[in-house]
Amino acid sequence: EIVLTQSPGTLSLSPGERATLSCRASQSFSSSYLAWYQQKPGQAPRLLIYGASSRATGIPDRFSGSGSGTDFTLTISRLEPEDFAVYYCHQYGSSPFTFGGGTKVEIK
Amino acid sequence: QITLKESGPTLVKPTQTLTLTCTFSGFTLSTSGVGVGWIRQPPGKALEWLALIYWDDDKRYSPSLKSRLTVTKDTSKNQVVLTMTNMDPVDTATYYCAHRYNWNYFDYWGQGTLVTVSS
């Protein structure tokens, strides 16, 4: 099973700042199978990034993904008020499919 | 437009069996490459993948829960059913179903249903 570890657990930033979220895997896998989700309280997860770096339909270009092997990054270039939420990475290439523990991006 | 919606009991007692139904529209589970998965989230905690069923009736389960889970599909009703036996308070969570296509990510999710396990 591929374990995904996200860091930091919480990121305290101000609107307009840059956010860098990390997702590290316990073993290497194809970047084609790494996704990022955003989740707000009381809502289902929303797909942001798939294939490590491809933005899903309707996702603003301030969201970008990168990485390969065991290290992946989600970057939000300039935080908007609606971006404060919890973010999860997810590997979907091999069963069991797994999610990271999440990073909460909160307003400083 | 793809939509999914979970339904089932909001409260179950310890040791009981939970049965959840995912009713969907906008796609069919008879189309090659289509799958429906189940994911849960305890209050304040992370997402956990549970199970997945494909159009060809191939099924995958979380190893840690495999002995307690069964997933089935009713293509004619556009439904997927998840059963989880021997429920425990630690199984209290919001349960989501989600659409997957061609071995890809979960792209469409239901709104989720909160299941509380308590006597």
Work out the largest interface and the residue count of each chain: A-B, 21 and 22 residues
Query: How does the overall form of chain B come out from the CA principal axes?
Result: globular
**pLDDT averaged residue by residue of chain A:** 96
**Can you write the helix and strand succession of chain B as a string?**
EEEEEEEEEEE
State mean pLDDT of chain B (0 to 100 scale): 97
Q: What is the beta-strand fraction of chain B?
A: over 45%
Low-confidence stretches of chain B: none
Rg of Cα set of chain B: 13 Å
* Number of strand elements of chain B: 11
Find the structural class of chain A using helix and strand composition.
mainly beta
Individual helix count of chain B: 0
* Structure annotation, total helices of chain A: 0
Main beta-sheet annotation of chain A? 7 strands, mixed
Please outline the major beta sheet of chain B.
7 strands, mixed
Count of extended strands of chain A: 10
Brief synopsis:
Chain A has 108 residues and is mostly beta strands. Chain A has strands at residues 4-7, 10-13, 19-29, 34-39, 46-50, 54-55, 63-76, 86-91, 98-99, 103-107. Chain A is 0% helix and 55% strand.
What does this structure look like?
- The complex is a heterodimer of chains A (108) and B (119).
- Chain A is mostly beta strands.
- In chain A, 0% of the residues lie in helices and 55% in strands.
- In chain A, a hairpin with a 6-residue loop joins strand 8 (86-91) and strand 9.
- Chain B contains no helices and eleven strands.
- In chain B, strands 2, 4, 5, 6, 9, 10 and 11 form a seven-stranded mixed sheet that branches. A four-stranded antiparallel sheet of chain B has the order 1-3-8-7, with no helix packed on it.
- Chain B has strands at residues 3-7, 11-12, 18-25, 34-41, 48-54, 59-61, 69-74, 79-84, 93-101, 106-109, 113-117.
- In chain B, a hairpin with a 4-residue loop joins strand 7 (69-74) and strand 8 (79-84).
- Chain B is globular, with a radius of gyration of 13 Å.
- By secondary structure, chain B is mainly beta.
- Chain A binds chain B through residues 1, 35, 37, 44-47, 50, 56, 88, 90, 92-93, 95-102, and chain B through 37, 39, 46-49, 52, 60-63, 96, 100, 103-107, 109-112.
